[in-house]
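Researcher: Quick test of sequence recovery. C-alpha cells follow.
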C-alpha cells in the first residue's frame, strides 16, 4: 500500500515537474533568441535570415512527420495554417527580426512583450467592454514605455531607429491577431505538424519576396557568425523551445504558462547588456519593470474575461 502511494505521488510530481521544466526552458531560451537574431542581422539581410531559419526549422518538423506517416491536414485546416503562417511567421517573426537591426535586442524584446495590449484593443473594437483592470494595465504599460523612451527622444530623429520601432510594433500587432485567430480556430490537427507547415510555407513566401526585391546576399557570402546564429535559432528557438512551449501550454494553467512573457524581456535586456554592451540604464530597468507590471494586469483581465466566475 505504501509503495503504491509513493509511486502515485512520484508520478504526480513527474507530471508537474516536466511541464514546469519546459516552461523554464521557454522563459530563458526564447529570451536568448533576441540576442542570436541581433547577431545574425548584423551581417546579412534580416528577411533572408528569417527565411533560412524558418525553412530549416520547417523541414525538420515536416520531415519528421512525413517519416512517421502522419496524415496531412484536411481542406479546412489548410486555411488556418496559411493564415497563421502569414501572421505569426512572415509578419510577426519577420518584422520583429528586421526591427532589431535598428534597435537594441532588449528594446525589441520589451516591445515584443506588449502584444496582450493589442489583444485587449482588438477585443474592444469588436464590441467587448474593457474592465478597469485592463484599462489600468494599459495605462501602466504606456507609462513604462514613456520612461523607457525618455532617454531615446533624440533617437527618434534617426529614421532607422523610428523604422525599427515601427516594425517591432507591427510585429506585436500581427502576433496578437495570430493569437486570437489560433484561439478561434483551435483544431484537433497535430500542433507540431501545423507549426512545421507554417514555418515551411512562410519561408517559401519570404524567399519569393527577397528574391523579387533582390534584398539578399549569396549563401557563400554569409559569415560564420550569422550561420551560427541561424543554427541556434533553428535548433533552440524554432524546434526545442517551440516543442517545450506547446507541451507546457497543454499541461499547465494559462496563468502559470504566461510567466514566460515576463521573463523573456528580462533575459534579453541583461544578455544584450553583457554581450553587446547595450545600455542598461535606470530608465530601461524601471520602465521595463513597470511595463511588465502593466502586462500582468492586462493578462489578468484577459483571463477573467475568458474564464468568468
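Model:
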Amino acid at each position: 500500500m505504501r509503495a503504491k502511494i509513493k509511486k502515485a505521488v512520484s508520478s504526480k510530481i513527474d507530471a508537474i515537474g516536466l511541464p514546469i521544466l519546459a516552461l523554464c526552458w521557454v522563459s530563458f531560451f526564447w529570451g536568448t533568441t533576441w540576442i542570436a537574431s541581433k547577431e545574425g542581422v548584423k551581417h546579412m539581410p534580416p528577411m533572408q535570415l528569417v527565411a533560412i531559419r524558418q525553412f530549416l526549422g520547417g523541414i525538420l518538423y515536416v520531415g519528421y512527420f512525413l517519416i512517421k506517416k502522419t496524415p496531412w491536414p484536411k481542406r479546412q485546416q489548410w486555411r488556418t495554417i496559411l493564415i497563421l503562417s502569414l501572421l505569426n511567421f512572415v509578419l510577426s517573426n519577420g518584422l520583429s527580426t528586421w526591427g532589431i537591426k535598428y534597435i537594441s535586442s532588449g528594446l525589441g524584446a520589451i516591445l515584443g512583450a506588449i502584444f496582450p495590449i493589442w489583444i485587449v484593443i482588438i477585443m474592444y473594437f469588436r464590441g467587448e467592454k474593457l474592465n478597469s483592470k485592463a484599462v489600468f494595465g494599459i495605462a501602466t504599460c504606456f507609462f513604462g514605455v514613456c520612461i523607457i523612451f525618455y532617454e531615446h527622444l533624440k533617437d527618434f530623429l534617426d529614421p532607422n531607429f523610428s523604422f525599427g520601432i515601427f516594425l517591432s510594433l507591427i510585429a506585436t500587432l500581427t502576433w496578437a491577431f495570430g493569437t486570437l485567430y489560433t484561439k478561434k480556430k483551435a483544431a484537433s490537427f497535430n500542433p507540431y505538424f501545423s507549426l512545421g507547415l507554417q514555418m515551411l510555407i512562410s519561408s517559401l513566401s519570404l524567399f519569393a519576396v527577397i528574391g523579387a526585391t533582390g534584398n539578399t546576399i549569396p549563401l557563400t557570402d554569409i559569415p560564420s557568425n550569422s550561420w551560427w546564429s541561424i543554427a541556434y535559432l533553428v535548433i533552440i528557438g524554432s524546434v526545442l523551445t517551440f516543442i517545450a512551449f506547446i507541451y507546457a501550454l497543454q499541461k499547465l494553467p494559462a496563468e502559470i504558462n504566461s510567466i514566460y512573457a515576463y521573463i523573456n524581456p528580462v533575459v534579453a535586456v541583461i544578455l544584450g547588456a553583457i554581450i553587446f554592451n547595450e545600455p542598461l540604464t535606470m530608465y530601461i530597468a524601471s520602465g521595463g519593470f513597470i511595463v511588465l507590471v502593466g502586462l500582468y494586469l492586462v493578462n489578468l483581465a484577459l483571463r477573467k474575461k475568458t474564464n468568468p466566475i
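The radius of gyration is 20 Å.
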